[in-house]
Design a protein that fits this description.
The complex is a heterodimer of chains A (520) and B (264). Chain A has 520 residues and is an all-alpha fold. Chain A folds into 2 domains: 398 residues, Up-down Bundle (Formate dehydrogenase/DMSO reductase fold), CATH 1.20.1630.10; 77 residues, Cytochrome C3 (Alpha-Beta Complex). Chain A has 19 helices and 5 strands. In chain A, the strands form 2 sheets. Chain A has a 3-stranded antiparallel sheet with strand order 3-4-5. A two-stranded antiparallel sheet of chain A has the order 1-2. The radius of gyration of chain A is 33 Å and the shape is elongated. Chain B has 2 domains: 202 residues, Alpha-Beta Plaits (2-Layer Sandwich); 30 residues. Helix content of chain B is 31%, strand content 14%. Chain B has a 3-stranded mixed sheet with strand order 8-1-9. The chains are: A mainly alpha (520), B alpha+beta (264). The interface between A and B is large, with 100 and 100 residues.
Chain lengths: 520, 264
């Protein structure tokens, strides 16, 4: 056992080391050197996962706080602390991810004083800042309690309700606004995901995610920290999860149907696979599973339903912020290893912070410690779940993973079309000769000393010999319009001399030097 | 209010000479890359390109929209639509979030990907020149009149005049007159612009209105949501008090609805 632990230690070092290295490269050499981002695909994994998912996965904090402190559903109280902790960590990591992604991270406070109320990003900045403060205050109560600062603890307790109400409002606003962010790309986001209802989808899925995360982290903690929670409470949350998933599912279906986008789910391409995988994992799969009382009442079933929801909605955020934008981007974005390493490091950091908090603070107040080490907390891990639901769980996972695998295969085969540069032969309405009436008037050059006669340049006479304007202009920038050759170097190869080099027919001096011949 | 300025670009008269392209480089102090100028792409080092499409020269640069998507997206107001028509960039405000790059329907703002502390770069309509009464560098050098600068309204009249004068020579459409609520770069062409690399099927509805429809509800959500939540808190608090009064021995209120068939 001991040996194993030592060996596994290499992984945290690798993960944090790689992440740290990537951050260094990002700030030494820029985003181009560290990421696969480009002007065509300016937002990638750091926005799509670190920010979008970091915030969404933290939604349990406001959901449960609202249930306990606003709706007085006291039976959920044992879970509030864990959800606030997850929320706080989630927001800190989202901000950390943003600091790496922003061009000027030291200006992250700018939106607070430089207002643009028309910007969704501005609204999100404000809400996330304020809500992180709210979470910090809620979290500080655990610290004060640990430090036995009675007064501060009491002070924190008296402002709980207004703080929670504010937190719920702020969360409602920015969880939905993360969806509103993409309302601005109607011409870029694939119609399977672009919808005027994006804010509603993001909010309702955040509610579901909040519930699902509470279930998942409770079970994970019970495994890791040997702290047992009442399954009954979690089953009840499973019911709330069903309602949230149902609302999301109906809204999503209405919208896809109304916009006539449902048939797009049949059009081959990586979008189809990713879309089907997404809706299978959330909402369809967990909805079917958790509607069954025997699944809800079962530890394994509940965990599976909740984790399916989590993975499905992560996939949803990926699809909205990345998959759905690839086709219009004329490029093929896939995160670089440095982007992936930073994200992994942040996730690992989150797990470490969660573990430390559970170890040193009272995060699971009512949890009972397990009998002895080595013995799992589960009296019956999965055995009492009938074969039917178990088979269903397996089918959902296998189907979803197959779809994702297919999607990745489709994506690898996908050739981005350079829409702009594609030379499709198009017939013009205008196949007549061009109208040259816009050309500048004749240009008379001053006559120099040795000149046999004044030169007057005329576009008209050149149109007879030159087929295209570019025969003279633009070819390695020979003759620049608006900058006529100077009288002294007209014979040079860059100017008139390029063609009038004495070899062409009719290249006698007087064919150009026509004017004022007598005056010499 | 001063009249909003604009460009009128006529694809049919562009000579593909590259003078505007060089003028952009010179005005903005950008390096001139080797090779054919039509191969140049919009980037942080190139704010204006002329692409050779279907044998014609097609200009790509900031459209200076009347209701710019980038300016509405920017959380710090670093992009600003000025009265004279130019959409300008205040680099000292920029936090580098790239929402403008994501948002622009014409894919114009470009980012300095190679710099540790990057800024957004794009055409600024030669703001310093036009506020001094000059025309933008590119329009000043255009030899064929394919690109003319002037009051946007007058340019629309001029565009209509050309369409009327030579109806068979043009697609009967001034691109940019209505697209995304109107742009300051207006384009005439004999080939549909979406075939030349411009985004197709842009609605006349300005893009920022889409996010504003969601954002304008924020105050209402706060007021109504706050009232609703406080009300629920008040109601459920009362319910629990009543329950406690009726069940002095009870310890778990509001439990009556819970799932009795729980796990074990």
């Amino acid at each position: 056992m001991r040996k194993n632990i030592k060996f596994w230690w290499i992984f945290p070092f690798l993960i944090f080391g790689a992440g740290f290295y990537s951050v260094l490269v990002r700030f030494a050499k820029g985003l181009g050197a560290s990421t696969h981002l480009s002007d065509r695909f300016p937002w990638g994994l750091w926005v799509g996962f670190d920010v979008m998912c970091g915030v969404a996965l933290a939604a349990g904090a406001f959901t449960l706080s609202a249930a306990v402190y606003v709706l007085h559903l006291d039976r959920y109280k044992p879970l509030v602390r864990a959800s606030i902790l997850t929320g706080f960590i989630g927001y800190l990591l989202a901000i950390a991810g943003l600091m790496v992604d922003l061009g000027h991270p030291y200006r992250i406070w700018h939106p607070l004083i430089m207002w643009n109320p028309h910007s969704v990003m501005f609204e999100i900045s404000w809400c996330v800042t304020l809500y992180t403060l709210v979470l910090a205050m809620e979290f500080s109560a655990f610290l004060f309690e640990k430090l036995r600062w009675g007064k501060s603890t009491n002070a924190a307790r008296t402002i709980t309700v207004p703080l929670v109400i504010m937190g719920v409002l702020l969360s409602t606003l920015h969880q939905s606004s993360l969806g509103s962010l993409f309302l601005i790309v109607p011409y870029k986001l694939h119609p399977l995901w672009y919808s005027p209802w994006l804010p509603i989808f993001f909010f309702s899925s955040a509610l579901a995610l909040g519930c699902a995360m509470v279930i998942v982290e409770s079970f994970a903690s019970s495994k890791v920290f040997k702290k047992e929670l009442e399954l009954k409470i979690l089953s009840d949350i499973g019911r709330v999860l069903v309602v949230a998933l149902a609302v999301y599912a109906v809204a999503r279906a209405i919208d896809l149907f109304d916009r006539g986008a449902l048939n797009l789910a049949l059009v081959p391409g990586f979008e189809r696979s990713m879309f089907l995988a997404e809706v299978l994992l959330a909402p369809i799969g967990p909805l079917i599973l958790l509607l069954m009382p025997m699944v809800r009442a079962n530890r394994f079933g509940l965990f599976m339903g909740a984790s399916m929801t989590v993975v499905g909605f992560i996939l949803n955020r990926f699809n909205v912020s990345m998959t759905g934008l690839i086709r219009s981007s004329e490029t093929k974005y896939f995160p670089s290893w440095m982007e992936i390493s930073v994200t992994f490091a942040l996730v690992a950091l989150g797990l470490v912070l969660f573990g430390l908090a559970v170890k040193y603070l009272n995060i699971f107040p009512l949890a009972k410690p397990c009998l002895s080490e080595g013995q799992t907390c589960t009296d019956k891990p999965s055995c009492c779940l009938p074969t039917g639901p178990r088979l269903l769980i397996a089918v959902f996972w296998v189907a979803a993973l197959t779809l994702i695998f297919n999607g990745i295969q489709d994506f690898r085969r996908f050739q981005p079309k350079d829409i702009g540069n594609a030379e499709v032969s198009v017939k013009s309405v205008n196949d007549k000769p061009r109208d040259y009436s816009y050309l500048p008037k004749d240009l008379a050059f001053p006559r120099s000393e040795e000149s046999p006669g004044k030169v007057t340049f005329s576009h008209d006479s050149h149109l007879l010999v030159a087929e295209k304007c570019t025969d003279c202009h633009g070819k390695q920038l020979g003759i620049l319009p608006g900058r006529a050759p100077r009288a002294t170097d007209m014979h040079s190869a860059e100017n008139c001399g390029r063609c009038h080099n004495g070899k062409a027919a009719g290249d006698e001096c007087l064919s150009c030097h026509k004017g004022d011949v007598s005056a010499k | 209010m001063r009249k909003t300025k604009g460009f009128l670009f006529d694809v049919t008269t562009c000579a593909l000479c590259g003078a505007c392209w060089v003028a952009d480089k010179e005005k903005n102090g950008l390096a001139v890359p080797a090779g054919e100028f039509t191969e140049d792409e919009l980037s942080d080092k190139s704010f204006l390109v002329i692409k050779k499409r279907q044998g014609r020269g097609v200009r790509f640069s900031c459209m200076h929209c009347l209701n710019p998507t980038c300016a509405s997206a920017c959380p710090v107001g670093a992009l600003q639509k000025t009265e004279i028509g130019a959409v300008i960039y205040h680099k000292e405000r920029c936090i580098g979030c790239r929402y403008c790059v994501v948002a622009c329907p014409f894919k114009i703002p470009k980012y300095e990907w190679t710099k540790p502390l990057p800024y957004v770069r794009k055409c600024d309509f030669c703001y310093s020149r036009i506020t001094a009464g000059q025309s933008p560098a590119c329009a000043a050098v255009c030899p064929t009149g394919a690109l003319v600068y002037g009051d946007r309204n007058e340019l629309i009249q001029e565009g209509r005049r050309r369409l009327k004068q030579n109806p068979s020579g043009y697609i009967d459409h001034i691109y940019g007159e209505k697209e995304v609520g109107g742009t300051s770069l207006l384009i005439l062409s004999d080939i549909p612009l979406e075939k030349l690399g411009y985004p197709p099927e842009l609605s006349e509805n300005p893009v920022p209105s889409l996010t504003w429809e969601a954002l304008e509800k924020v105050p209402n959500v706060v007021l109504l949501g706050g009232t609703l939540l406080t009300g629920l808190w008040w109601l459920t608090k009362r319910r629990n008090e009543v329950w406690r009064a009726e069940h002095p021995e009870g310890k778990e209120p509001a439990e009556n609805s819970s799932d009795g068939r729980g796990g074990r």
